[in-house]
Amino acid sequence: MAITVTSKEFNQRASQVLKWSEEQPVFITKWGKVVSVLSSYADYQQTKQAEPSFEQIFTEIEEDVNDHFFTEFEQALSEIRHTSSLRSVELD
């Protein structure tokens, strides 16, 4: 069963809530809506490791992107540039 406390209860019993959060997440509510979740550092670390970091996302080499892909992209971009024209805009 999940533990839920109001923000007022959290302020009054912070040390007890911290103890509870070592065993399971504690949901903190304000005006009847959950606004925060307090959990153990170990749980946080597990969640953090499961999600890739910003650096991992953007440093992984995509196998589908190669020289052939870039050549095709440049050709398509060149075709768009040659077939597109600028339109005059009248500003009143």
What's the short story on this structure?
The protein has 5 helices and 3 strands, in the order βααββααα.
Using only CA atoms, what is the Rg? 27 Å
**What is the beta-strand fraction?**
15-25%
Mean pLDDT: 84
Low-confidence stretches: none
What letter string, H or E per element, gives the SSE order?
A: EHHEEHHH
What is the share of helical residues?
40-55%
Main sheet: strands, sense, barrel: 3 strands, mixed
Secondary structural class? alpha+beta
Strand order of the largest sheet: 1-2-3
Give the key terms.
three-stranded mixed β-sheet; 92 residues; alpha+beta; 3 strands; 5 helices
Textual characterization of the structure:
By secondary structure, this protein is α+β, with helices and mostly antiparallel strands. Helices cover 53% and strands 16% of the residues. The radius of gyration is 27 Å and the shape is elongated. It starts with a strand and ends in a 9-residue tail after the last helix.
